[in-house]
Amino acid sequence: MDARLANTAWEEVMTAHMRLMRRFAARDYWADLSMREYDVLYTLSKGEDAQRLSDLQDHVLLSQPGLSRLVDRLVERGLVQRVPDPSDARAVRLSLTEAGREAQRRIGRAHARDVAEAMSVLSDDELAQLARLVRTLHTQEG
Questions:
Q1: C or N terminus of the chain, fewer CB within 10 Å?
Q2: What is the pLDDT of residues 2-34, one digit of tens each?
Q3: Mind listing the pLDDT tens digit for each residue in 69-101?
Q4: Helix 35-46 and helix 3-25, axial crossing angle in degrees, nearest 10
Q5: Is pLDDT above 90 for 128?
Q6: Where are the beta strands (DSSP E) in the chain?
Q7: 3-state class of 89 per DSSP?
Q8: 86: exposed, middle or buried (C-beta count within 10 Å: 0-12, 13-18, 19+)?
Q9: Tell me, what DSSP letter sits at residue 51?
Q10: CA angle, 43 as apex, 90 and 50 as ends, to 5°?
Q11: CB count, 10 Å around CB of 12?
């Protein structure tokens, strides 16, 4: 493998990510949620069952203490609830409240349209290829 090419490709991926995230962050559809808070709501919305904090952390780019504080704020705001873990009486799981589910849907619809618009510079074939390539990267071990 060509190390220079690998690093150039990596820089392009990171630059695209940074520019898209700046674009999305500047939008007005976030209402009173931060993008990180929305990320937690979105991640919880994808699961059928309530999730442990450790499971949530696998999908959110925050340290465990940072994620715990963010979840505490979402619980205080009535968007997330803690529910007993049926398999471990000492543990709790996290799930969306109805208000959290509604906020995720409302923001998610606007964000999804924005993502589709940003990605419209690629053809359907290019989008499929990009999805395959990125999936290969994030499914590799360690």
A1: C
A2: 999 999 999 999 999 999 999 999 999 998 899
A3: 999 999 999 999 999 988 888 889 999 999 999
A4: 100
A5: yes
A6: 80-85, 88-96
A7: strand
A8: exposed
A9: B
A10: 30
A11: 10
Report the alpha-carbon distance of residue 35 to residue 19 in Å, rounded.
15
**What is the reported pLDDT for 1?**
86
- Per DSSP, what are the bridge partners of residue 83? 93
pTM, rounded to two decimals: 0.87
Q: How far is it, in rounded angstroms, from Cα 111 to Cα 29?
A: 7
Q: Are 37 and 72 in contact (CB under 8 A)?
A: no
What is the assigned CATH class of domain 3-118?
mainly alpha
pLDDT band at 140 (very low <50, low <70, confident <90, very high): confident
DSSP 3-state assignment of 24?
helix
Q: Are 82 and 64 in contact (CB under 8 A)?
A: no
Domain boundaries, the chain: 3-118
23's tokens: 């674009």
- Distance, C-alpha 13 to centroid of its chain: 17
The percentage of the chain sitting over the pLDDT mark of 90, rounded to a whole number, equals: 77
